[in-house]
């Protein structure tokens, strides 16, 4: 196994068959080695600094019915909300005072969040906080809409493809949603000029090693600036309620694979990882992640944005818990970077 880890670090890619061996034959010892190698690469490129992004969950309304998602349209148990522009600006104000210089506006594909409305909100944040990065994570939109948001001041866009394989995509999403469309959106985002993020759920129902290899090769081709890797976690009110979570080990393995393939990428240690296991955030960082996204949403709304069971939103997962986060990072030898943390290509 060590030979593939060394080769991946040196050549930043493997043949499909070699990826297959790494994904199927990685025991605890090999996982420790690849996590260490990925950590070294991350330390070399970013030092011991972890970028923070202030996450604002602007709406839990969604027109879609993804089988894995707790806020899917078909879940009648969700108390729906949509933040007003004033409330969003208020979150930014609080975040700015705490030191955040990136705001991530995340939400379902909410029909009431029209392109006009999003454009207006982005422009207002841009006016008030010219030194901050604005990241959007609002799902599939037209190319024109992406361009409008970009010109209004958005810099980055997160849109996980979830799975590259069309059949697997149709196992995770109802008819009417198309993996092809998702991939086209990613292409449009790249061409518009966004720092673009994509990624997958690890261990989603029906996922095979062959799917993961396709995902790795797709990400290699797309070359996104941000890569989001988190475990699948079931939500009680979805068709996938009875499926098991993705594993910590496989999530950490994939995280390290992407760090070795792509030393400059911005890779978060996700809330899903922190939900899966109490020290998940730290484990993600020690496997090569370099970003965390504490929650800046109003406290009364946080529990309503439940994509999966037991989602962490307090303590170090919250913006007001930044001291706890600082302490947790300090305990593993890292510090928060309060810079914007834009993507930069680094050669070595
Ligand atoms: S995953 Fe996104 S698009 Fe799908 S139902 Fe949930 S919020 Fe909507």
UniProtKB/TrEMBL annotation:
Q: Name one GO biological process term.
A: water-soluble vitamin biosynthetic process
List, separated by semicolons, the cofactors it needs.
Answer: [2Fe-2S] cluster; [4Fe-4S] cluster
Q: Which residues form the Radical SAM core domain?
A: 48-270
A Pfam family matched in the record: Radical_SAM
Is Glycosyltransferase tagged as a keyword? no
Q: Which residues bind [4Fe-4S] cluster?
A: 62, 66, 69
NCBIfam families per the record? rSAM_HydE
PANTHER family xref list: 3-METHYLORNITHINE SYNTHASE, BIOTIN SYNTHASE
Protein's UniProt name: Iron-only hydrogenase maturation rSAM protein HydE
Q: What lineage, starting at the top, does this entry show?
A: Bacteria, Pseudomonadati, Bacteroidota, Bacteroidia, Bacteroidales
């Amino acid at each position: 196994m060590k030979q593939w880890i060394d080769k991946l670090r040196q050549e930043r890619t493997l043949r499909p068959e070699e990826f297959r061996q790494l994904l199927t034959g990685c025991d605890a010892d090999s996982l420790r080695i690849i996590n260490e190698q990925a950590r070294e690469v991350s330390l070399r490129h970013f030092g011991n600094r972890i970028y923070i992004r202030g996450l604002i969950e602007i709406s839990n309304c969604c027109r879609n019915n993804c089988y894995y998602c707790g806020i899917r349209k078909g879940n009648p148990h969700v108390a729906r909300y949509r933040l007003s522009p004033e409330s969003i600006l208020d979150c930014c104000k609080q975040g700015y005072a705490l030191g955040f210089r990136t705001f991530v506006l995340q939400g379902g594909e909410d029909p009431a969040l029209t392109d006009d409305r999003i454009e207006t909100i982005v422009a207002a944040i841009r006016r008030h906080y010219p030194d901050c990065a604005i990241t959007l994570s609002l799902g599939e939109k037209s190319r024109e809409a992406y361009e409008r948001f970009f010109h209004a001041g958005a810099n980055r866009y997160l849109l996980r493809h979830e799975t590259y394989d069309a059949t697997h995509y149709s196992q995770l999403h109802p008819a009417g949603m198309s993996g092809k469309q998702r991939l086209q959106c990613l292409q449009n985002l790249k061409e518009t000029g966004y720092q673009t993020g994509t990624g997958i759920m690890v261990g989603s129902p029906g996922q095979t090693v062959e799917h993961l290899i396709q995902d790795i090769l797709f990400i290699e081709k797309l070359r996104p600036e941000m890569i989001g890797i988190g475990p699948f976690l079931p939500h009680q009110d979805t068709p996938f309620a009875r499926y098991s979570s993705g594993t910590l080990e496989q999530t950490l393995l994939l995280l390290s694979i992407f760090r070795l393939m792509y030393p400059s990428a911005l890779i978060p240690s996700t809330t899903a990882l922190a939900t899966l296991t109490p020290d998940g955030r730290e484990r993600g960082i020690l496997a090569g992640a370099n970003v965390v996204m504490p929650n800046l949403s109003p406290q009364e709304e946080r529990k309503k944005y439940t994509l999966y069971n037991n989602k962490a939103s307090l303590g170090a997962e919250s913006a007001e818990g930044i001291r706890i986060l600082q302490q947790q990072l300090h305990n593993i030898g890292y510090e928060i970077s309060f810079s914007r943390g834009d993507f930069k290509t680094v050669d070595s």
